[in-house]
Amino acid sequence: MEHKLEDIIAIFDQCFEKEFNTKLIKGGDEPIYLPANEERPYHAIYFAHGFYSSALHEISHWLIAGEARRKLEDFGYWYEPDGRTEEKQREFEQVEVKPQALEWILATAAGFRYFASSDNLNGGVGDTQPFKQAVYEQVKFYAKNGLPKRAETLRQALAKFYNTGEGIDLSKFDITRI
Fold first, then answer.
1. Which residues form the domain of 59?
2. What gap in Å lies between CA 28 and CA 67, rounded to an integer?
3. Are both 16 and 99 inside the same structural domain?
């Protein structure tokens, strides 16, 4: 199955541009979310290097962010750059569980392979299994209790476009492959 950037951009924009004044945009080296301002009258989710996986990841952060956070650059989250210690890495992973669970669900709806991201190539990643397990547990929680409204809207649109079926099928989520 081919995954074109134009498709994910069109699907996202069709779901959210009008109601939330938000666009998905192919960016450069670093992903970033920028709220609307005088020069750009819409909110912009820039994903890195034109990678489909980066688009899904940045969208997932937007889906988690509440209305107040969507008014802040990068949703007001702290970000410790690559090279984190193992302690800082565990803190990073705690705030990444929900976005990465959504990313995995969206990737599955799009028929796209998800990989858990430590985003710490030059630091102390340590044992990633507890993080992967936490992401999987969050996926199971969403499957049982439902997704937030915007996330479900996008999941359904992706599943329809890529013809991957209805609902969240937990048999498609294999923790040993992420």
1. 5-76
2. 26
3. no
* Structure tokens belonging to residue 122: 């030059």
**What letter represents residue 166's amino acid?**
E
Instruction: Using DSSP, state whether 72 is helix, strand or coil.
Output: coil
The torsion region of residue 114 among left (phi > 0), alpha (psi -120 to 50) and beta comes to beta
Q: How many angstroms separate the Cα of 122 from the Cα of each of 60, 115, 125, 133, 154?
A: 24, 18, 9, 23, 33
User: What is the number of other CB atoms lying within 10 angstroms of the CB of residue 75?
Assistant: 16
Digit-coded pLDDT (tens) for 26-43: 998 889 999 999 999 999
Mean pLDDT, the chain, rounded, equals 91
Helices 5-20 and 149-162: angle between axes, nearest 10 degrees: 150
* pTM listed for this prediction: 0.91
Q: How confident is the model at residue 120 (pLDDT cuts 50, 70, 90)?
A: very low
- Specify the pairing of strand 32-34 against strand 43-47: antiparallel
Six-digit token pair at 45?
A: 């989710």
The residue-averaged pLDDT of 17-33 equals 95
Residue 137 in domain: yes
Same domain for 103 and 67: no
